[in-house]
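In response to a reviewer's request, we include the raw inputs and outputs for one of the modeled complexes. The two entities were modeled together in a single run.
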Amino acid sequence: MRADQTSTDLTSADLTSADVIRETAARLDALDRLAGCRDLFVPADGSPGHVPVTAYLDGNSLGRPLLATETRLHELVRGAWGTGLIRSWDEQWMALPYRLGDRLGDVCLGAAPGQTVIGDSTTVMLYKLLHAALVHQRAVSGGRRVDLVLDRENFPTDRYVAASLADALDARLVWIDPDPAGGVTPEQVRAVVGGRTAVVLLSHVAYKSAWLADLPAITAAAHGAGALVLWDLCHSAGVIPVGLDEHDVDLAVGCSYKFLGGGPGAPAFGYVATRLQSDLASPITGWMGHAEPFMMGPDYAAGTGMRRFVSGTPAVLGMAGIEDTVDLVEDVGLSAVTAKATALGEFVIGVVDGLLSRRGVRVVSPRDPGRRGAHVTIAHPRCRELYRQLWGEGIVPDFREPGGIRLGLAPLSTSYAEVATALVRIDELLR
Amino acid sequence: MRADQTSTDLTSADLTSADVIRETAARLDALDRLAGCRDLFVPADGSPGHVPVTAYLDGNSLGRPLLATETRLHELVRGAWGTGLIRSWDEQWMALPYRLGDRLGDVCLGAAPGQTVIGDSTTVMLYKLLHAALVHQRAVSGGRRVDLVLDRENFPTDRYVAASLADALDARLVWIDPDPAGGVTPEQVRAVVGGRTAVVLLSHVAYKSAWLADLPAITAAAHGAGALVLWDLCHSAGVIPVGLDEHDVDLAVGCSYKFLGGGPGAPAFGYVATRLQSDLASPITGWMGHAEPFMMGPDYAAGTGMRRFVSGTPAVLGMAGIEDTVDLVEDVGLSAVTAKATALGEFVIGVVDGLLSRRGVRVVSPRDPGRRGAHVTIAHPRCRELYRQLWGEGIVPDFREPGGIRLGLAPLSTSYAEVATALVRIDELLR
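The model returned the following structure tokens for the whole complex.
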């Protein structure tokens, strides 16, 4: 646990009783420099038809809305949509996917302007960039590079899209089998890449285990073999620094409804390094990717820069929450967000070790905070039943097959007290 | 002009002066049974930084928001998102694309349940359904059916996506050249379809001319040759009856931010006839199209029904306005909406003939109301300059290259007075 997050020097030996855990959580919240951010969110503790939420530990699946987003959506409906009407496309919305992409790239991804764009779902954006990369790599290698390296613990959409594209483009899937409680290592990547490798597709933070991949080393390993790398940033964007430019990443995609606060089904983002943009072609050649969309000419001519990776009309409502969240992350600093994610994770692990291990609960996420994203997954044979019980009581973690409770730690909205509430209750339920 | 819309029996001979036109518009508004619907929309006549809109004639490009949508979005942020949080996926959002698709199908498209789904942009939805249809037709014909029939006046995204898919799938584009002021006829389709035709891709209402294609006859012509037909309903959904089931349509796509009020970049819809669903496969195999998304299993298994045509996480915010608009259309009846669209169009044509023709303005949309959608395009050599001037004054029609002003007639929100304001001002500017 980092010094700037707490002045106490806790070990799991201390965290053996509900009282101590609750007191510790209160002390950590009092010391938390980001604690005030919680007041910026729409209150989660009461609505008609719902049990009030007392502990929300699923901000890594659906982030809570900021009050600013409620206001922004209201103003959008009344203003830019309701009275600006069609004029707002010219005035702001045509540029929005690029402007907001650049802001996201700057604040959260370590990407210089002109490389990040907002649009589509993560699945569709992934399809487009992976398709483009596979076609390009085959072409420049004289047909030699056809291998697509991925891992069996990657998020389903990544695996399914990869498999379909491999079928469609006659590529070959090369599977890595990571430790389910850990993740893909640079050594595993080095062992499989070579002169046939076209693309390496991996998640920065594993959606189950929270394993934080060694992005710099794996990117370098892929490049060493002449491959491109496509990183899925769904579980890192907005909470863990990425350093896309610094580490020479080629391509990335990610979703915005987790730590980026875009709301349910908000659009994804895509990143393509400037050096590659003109060589890659989206398979979905929509009018918004055209160099001059409103000329409506006879033939498609791909736009320059990130425009060519846009297909349809940008989803403006879904960008409101992203904008507010990026503003807030910039305001407090991504490093403070990451530090609190780490500290919350250490607290979870301390409580599991001190209190819950005697009930048979195990941590199945990395214990090394340098290799862990912003959630901690715990396992117990009764996890499915536990999670149902907890939801019924307004304690809301996530559940992931086959038997893990995933505790999402969204640093801007999650308190130590919420963590304590959830874990102490799990202890009671397992008694 | 239909009897139920006006008791006056106007001809263009009457509509020769600004005063008569304004008085006529006032009389028509007073008689309009849908006039009260205008009060249901967010007022468009004032916002900081914008010239107040006095005539909005671009509801066929971006529909105005309903006040109910402002409320629904507010409640969504406070309620289902802000306090329901992740639980709302189980409780309502997972089903929303299907439930709302069914509602849209019922009220606006003539589609029985289980055939319409909301998702993606129109471009992406078109890509998926067209890809699926081309692959299927080739397979069942032993490789013979490779022709994709389309027309040169179709919306750019349709032409661009068709061209890319023809390249990717080794299909052959067969172009129809329609009358630019009219559109594709059944005869033109019959002349080109045959044993090699895989798919006929056309717009129900042409985006420039407003030509309303003879959907039943063209669909029958395609079927007569063993082809599938994919209709783009962007400019008819919500304003012109479609009759998808009645006319045995195979596939359709459309957008929701025009007459369906979804807001800027709201998700598209897709329709696949029940009889075809299990034979077609989406090229974009995202987790949300899986038979059991949350099993997160190793291999993709396409869901049944429309689920298999869903890719990523549904865009919930963008569905709010669609829901309210479908509710309103159901309330007043689609036939009343269509009747007012026709009547508004007749009024436009009457004024152009009576007042503007002497300034050299021509109608380049069908004069036959039975072959016209819900906009009227007028042409004049100075259209581009006119449209800029009008926008600056808060009179907002659309402009489409090479030289047409498109007057969008959204029956729920457009008044005859707005039409009069715009056309009288055009007359003044052309003096």
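As requested, we also summarize the result in words. Residues 18-61+333-430 of chain A form a domain with the Aspartate Aminotransferase, domain 1 fold (CATH 3.90.1150.10). Chain A has two domains: 18-61+333-430, 71-328.
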